[in-house]
Amino acid sequence: MARTTRLQATRRAAASSGDGGTATASARPGHLPVSLATTIPDNERSLMDLAASAAFEAGNVLYVLGRGAEAEAHWQRAARRNPRHAESRSNIGVAHYSARRFAEAASAFEVAVGVAPGFAESYQNLGAARKALGDADRALEAYRTASHLAPLGHEARRGAALVPRERGGLGEALHWLRSARALSPSEAQIALDVGIVHVSAPPTL
Question: Do 55 and 75 form a contact (C-beta atoms < 8 A)?
């Protein structure tokens, strides 16, 4: 079973998809969005006692309401009750990232992928945190892993494109953006990024 489905949200409001999923948390200007895990897969519910599950879900509600510190405290509580619950671990990283504590965010996402190596969203989040820290090579490595784990997801590909773009690797950036656009042709931000690369790149690209 897929770990998550995706819905779009901001810290002030969330649009429900009915079956839950992930949310894209608002990032400060200049930084990439990170994905908030909002459901527990059915095959993992048996690992969560009621108190841990309630803490996880309460943290999600508080985060959407803009109460990040309280949300983080609930996710920390859920992680203490079940140290192998990757969604809580990843959301702790989201809280750190939103507070611009990028080193702490990267550490939390690394714990999440250590617990659940197949959790693509945590690798994507790890790429964003590493990029914010200026660790371009390891950011690209995390985005590549996310792209491999979620071959139909465009977000990690866009993130991967922005790393070489900022280093002048416009050909590689365009490769990732074309891949992302093929998966989500109506995504306006990807189209804008492609345009920026074309403006910056030599005519041969």
Answer: yes
**Amino acid letter for position 79:** A
- At 118-138, the pLDDT tens digits run 999 999 999 999 999 999 999
Instruction: Tell me the C-alpha distance between 7 and 38, whole Å.
Output: 9
At 35, which helix (H) or strand (E)?
A: strand 34-37
Residue 36: strand pairing partners: 23
* CB 26, CB 61: distance < 8 Å: no
Beta bridge partners of 94: none
Beta-sheet pairing, 34-37 with 22-25: antiparallel
Could you write out the three-class secondary structure of 11-33? CCCECCCCCCCEEEECCCCCCCC
Q: Which run of H or of E encompasses 172? A: helix 170-183
Position 50 pLDDT exceeds 80: no
By C-alpha distance, which of 92, 146, 154, 90 is closest to 123?
A: 146
DSSP-assigned letter for residue 22: E
Total residue length of the chain: 205
Q: Is the pLDDT assigned to residue 167 strictly greater than 90?
A: no
pTM of the model: 0.77
State the burial class of residue 196 (Cβ atoms within 10 Å of its Cβ: 0-12, 13-18, 19+).
Answer: middle
Distance (Å) of CA 143 to CA 35, 41, 169: 13, 23, 16
Residue 182 token pair: 């093929």
